Amino acid sequence: MNLINIIKGTKDFKMLEKEAVEGTLSQAILLQTKDSFYASEFAKALSMLILDGGKACQTCENCQKIEAGAHPDVKKYPLKEKLLVSDSEEIVSESFIRPIFADKKIFIIENIDNSMDSAQNKLLKTLEEPTKNVYLILTCANSEMVLPTIRSRCNKIQLEKLEKSDILKLVSNRLAVSLCDGYIGKAIALEKSKNLEDVCEKAVSVLCDMKHSREVLKFSKQILDNKSDIMLTLEILAIAVEDMLKIKSGKESLVRLPFKERLSLVQSDYSVRALCEIALLLEKLSKEKVYNINFTLAIENFLLNILEVKYLCK
Ligand SMILES: [Zn+2]
Questions:
Q1: Which of 95, 98, 118, 124 sits a CA distance of 20 to 30 A from 144?
Q2: CA 38–ligand 1 middle distance (angstroms)
Q3: Taking a C-beta distance cutoff of 8 angstroms, is the pair 36, 139 a contact?
Q4: Gap from CA of 57 to ligand 1 centroid (Å)
Q5: CB atoms within 10 A of CB 261
Q6: DSSP letter, residue 57
Q7: Torsion of CA 241, 246, 248, 252, to 10 degrees
Q8: What are the residue boundaries of the structural domains of the chain, listed by start?
Q9: Which helix (H) or strand (E) holds 158?
Q10: Distance 64 CA to ligand 1 centre (A)
Q11: How far is 253 from 23, CA to CA, in rounded Å?
Q12: DSSP 8-state code for residue 23
């Protein structure tokens, strides 16, 4: 099983497959998902579909060249970090040149929402009236950041998250899969993270084991030990809080972290109001991290606040 096979089984892909077979596939397609890795792989599968006459078989020469990232008629942009006016100019002029190997030509433009308006503007005419047999596949995390004039010229597809069962076919670390929220790119990145188990354990232990204000320093040190994983720690804490709320409302089957028993044991120490307050504190703390405010102090305050709301919102 590979990711292309999983993509081929999704509703999103099947719809495009039907259009390709019927000859109604749009020549300008905008794929939206927060998972840029998935967007890139989906664009690859879609290129196979287009060049392989509606099949994406993965074995013919067209498919294999696409898989290897070496198909002369599939061009990927941006060439550098973000799409520049010069990239767009190249796409426009290249779109008039006939394909070399296949009978169609594809331009994949990734993360179009990161590019300047001027670079996007250069593509308007090509998107509106693409040359015969030219396809443009754009990807973005947030289509609100794409010029409305670009959006309106594309068939916009909001890619669905993947099923947990599908992600488990490719990523064996169950913790990574429970944390990824349906985003395969995130699951793969989490699986590579060496400290994942440790970070998770330390985050959960804040809610389960911290009982007294004199322990705040010890717990803040634990969190700050994995400096590069602080955002992950905060994310896991937020999921643990959600999980406790689920346990409280009898929706235990929806719990995401593999700590159901530990969280069940301490959930009665937290009222629903306390958990909601902690969720808000976590949001605030994430923002402080982004703005690089003195973070050691912010963490210590946060931990004290947890104890406080736990006590006050009994
Ligand atoms: Zn093929």
A1: 95
A2: 20
A3: yes
A4: 4
A5: 7
A6: -
A7: -120
A8: 3-160, 194-312
A9: strand 155-158
A10: 7
A11: 44
A12: T
Give residue for tokens 């028993």: 261
Question: What confidence tens digit (pLDDT) does each residue in 166-206 have?
Answer: 999 999 999 999 999 999 999 999 999 888 999 999 999 99
* C-alpha span between 265 and 4 (Å, rounded): 42
Q: How far is the CA of 103 from the centre of ligand 1 (A)?
A: 13
Please tell me the distance between residue 101's alpha carbon and the centre of ligand 1 in angstroms.
Answer: 13
| Tens digits of residue pLDDT in 217-241 | 999 999 988 788 888 999 999 999 9
Alpha-carbon separation of residue 200 from 116, 120, 195, 225, 304 (angstroms)? 38, 41, 8, 13, 20
CB 286 within 8 A of CB 234: yes
Side chain identity, residue 119: A
Give yes or no for residue 292 having a pLDDT over 80.
Answer: no
Residue 70 has pLDDT above 80, yes or no: yes
Give the integer Cα–Cα distance in Å for 307 and 216.
9
| Residue count (the chain) | 314
CA 79 – ligand 1 centroid, Å: 26
Q: How would residue 313 be classed by pLDDT, with cut points 50, 70 and 90?
A: confident
Other C-beta atoms within 10 Å of 180: how many? 24
In angstroms, how far is the first alpha carbon of the chain from the final one?
50
* Total-model pTM: 0.87
How many angstroms separate the CA atoms of 139 and 20, rounded? 19
- Residue 124 near residue 90 (C-beta atoms within 8 A): no
Sign of CA dihedral 275, 280, 286, 292: negative
Those residues with Cβ within 8 angstroms of residue 42's Cβ, 6 or more apart along the chain or in another chain: 7, 12, 13, 31, 33, 139, 159
CATH superfamily of 3-160: P-loop containing nucleotide triphosphate hydrolases (3.40.50.300)
Copy the structure tokens of residue 67.
């898989």
CA 201, 176, 228: angle at the middle one, nearest 5? Answer: 60
* Cα–Cα dist 123/274, whole Å: 51
